[in-house]
Amino acid sequence: MAVDIKNLNHNQLNDLISKAQLRQDELRKEKVVKLREKIHALIKAEGYSFEDIFGGARKSKRAGAKVAPKYRNPANPAQTWSGRGKRPHWFNDALKAGKKEKDLVI
């Protein structure tokens, strides 16, 4: 199927590009599924399980568990931070104002 793109206007070209990208994604996903099936078949033919080869899904027992706050905003005690992840603005502002991390520890 040949498409004569010279006769398409701007909107038609954009529509064609969108449809082509969607189709490309579909083909990629189909290829991944087929490859996954081949890998599972090969592993099974050798007498192993997927977990034997790649290990089981290891989830942390603490996944999703809340971490106790480690720092508190002296200006607003309702604001706390566990010390993990990106520093909150109030923490950075306190450091700029001359406070030390140990001053903000709960």
TrEMBL record:
Entry's localization field: Cytoplasm, Nucleoid
Record domain DNA-binding protein H-NS-like C-terminal: where: 59-106
Ranges where the record places region Disordered: 63-87
InterPro entries documented for this protein: H-NS_C_dom (IPR027444), H-NS_C_dom_sf (IPR037150)
Record's keyword annotation contains Transferase: no
One Pfam match: Histone_HNS
Signal sequence region: none
GO molecular function list: bent DNA binding; DNA-binding transcription repressor activity; minor groove of adenine-thymine-rich DNA binding; transcription cis-regulatory region binding
Keywords from the UniProt entry: Cytoplasm, DNA-binding
A GO cellular component annotation in the UniProt record: nucleoid
Recorded family membership: Belongs to the histone-like protein H-NS family.
Protein name: Histidine biosynthesis protein
